Backbone:
C-alpha cells in the first residue's frame, strides 16, 4: 500500500484504485471509513466505482495501517479533515467526490462544509445525527470497556446492531476480527471526542449534491430523525433501504455503491 507522510511522526496508508479508460480523465472519489475500521471495509464498493473513477481509500490516522495515536492525542474533526486535504493535495487531486460511513460521515460533513470548492458530490451512508446530545456517561463506559477489555468485546457485542440480523455469520466474524485490531490508545482517544462532536452548523454550509442512505431499522435514528438533519442540507436526497443495520455501507455495500453511481450520473455539479 502507498504511504503518505503526514508529519514527522504520522504516516497515512491508503489504497488507490483506478480501472477507468486510460485515455479518460477520471474524476476521483475519497472514502472516509468509520470508527475502528480501515481501507479494507470498502471491498464491495470499489468494484462498482473504480471502473469509472479513481478511488482513494485512506486509513484514518490511528487506525488500520496508519500510525497509532497515543491515548492523550488531542483528536478533532478539523484535524481529520486537514489530514484528508493534505493527502488529496499530495496526490494532485483538487476536486473530488466524497463518501463517509458512520463517524466517517461526521468528518465528511465537516469537510464538505469547510471546503465546498473541493467537493463535487457527497454520499453519507449510515451516519449519525449532527448533534447526538450529551454522551458523557456513554463515553465513560466506552473508555472503561476499552481500558479493561480492549476493542474486541465491544466489537462483538455491538456487531448485530451494526450489521443487522440478516448478515452472514462468516461476515460478522470478519468484521469483529477487523475492528479488534484497532490500537486501544487510538480507540480511547477517538471515542472521547469524535462521537460527541456537534456539526449542526455545518449542514447549511454543504453546497454540493448530497446523497444520504440509511435503513428502516437503523439504531442511529429512525428515517424521520435522519430526514430532520438531512433536509438541512439544501441540495440533498434521502434513500431508506430495507433492513435493521446501522452500518448500511457494510450491510448494503453493493446497493449503496450503485445508488451513488446513479446519483453522480444524475447530479449537476
Residues:
Amino acid at each position: 500500500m502507498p504511504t503518505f507522510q503526514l508529519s514527522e511522526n504520522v504516516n497515512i496508508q491508503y489504497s488507490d484504485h483506478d480501472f477507468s479508460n486510460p485515455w479518460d480523465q477520471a474524476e476521483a472519489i475519497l472514502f472516509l471509513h468509520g470508527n475502528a475500521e480501515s481501507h479494507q471495509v470498502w471491498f464491495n464498493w470499489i468494484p462498482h466505482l473504480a471502473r469509472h473513477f479513481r478511488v482513494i481509500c485512506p486509513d484514518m490516522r490511528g487506525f488500520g495501517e496508519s500510525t497509532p495515536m497515543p491515548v492523550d492525542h488531542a483528536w478533532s474533526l478539523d484535524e481529520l479533515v486537514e489530514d484528508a486535504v493534505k493527502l488529496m493535495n499530495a496526490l494532485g487531486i483538487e476536486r473530488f467526490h466524497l463518501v463517509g460511513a458512520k463517524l466517517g460521515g461526521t468528518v465528511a460533513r465537516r469537510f464538505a462544509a469547510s471546503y465546498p470548492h473541493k467537493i463535487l458530490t457527497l454520499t453519507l451512508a449510515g451516519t449519525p445525527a449532527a448533534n447526538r446530545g450529551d454522551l458523557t456517561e456513554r463515553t465513560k463506559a466506552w473508555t472503561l470497556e476499552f481500558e479493561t477489555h480492549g476493542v474486541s468485546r465491544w466489537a462483538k457485542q455491538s456487531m448485530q446492531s451494526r450489521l443487522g440480523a440478516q448478515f452472514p455469520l462468516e461476515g460478522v466474524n470478519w468484521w469483529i476480527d477487523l475492528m479488534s485490531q484497532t490500537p486501544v490508545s487510538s480507540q480511547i482517544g477517538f471515542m472521547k471526542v469524535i462521537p460527541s462532536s456537534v456539526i449542526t452548523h455545518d449542514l447549511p454550509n454543504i453546497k454540493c449534491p448530497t446523497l444520504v442512505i440509511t435503513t428502516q431499522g437503523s439504531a442511529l435514528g429512525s428515517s424521520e430523525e435522519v430526514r430532520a438533519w438531512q433536509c438541512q442540507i439544501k441540495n440533498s436526497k434521502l434513500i431508506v433501504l430495507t433492513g435493521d443495520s446501522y452500518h448500511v455501507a457494510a450491510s448494503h455495500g453493493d446497493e449503496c455503491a450503485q445508488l451513488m453511481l446513479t446519483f453522480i450520473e444524475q447530479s449537476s455539479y
User: Anything to note?
Assistant: Residues 37 and 48 are 21 Å apart (CA to CA). The mean pLDDT is 97.
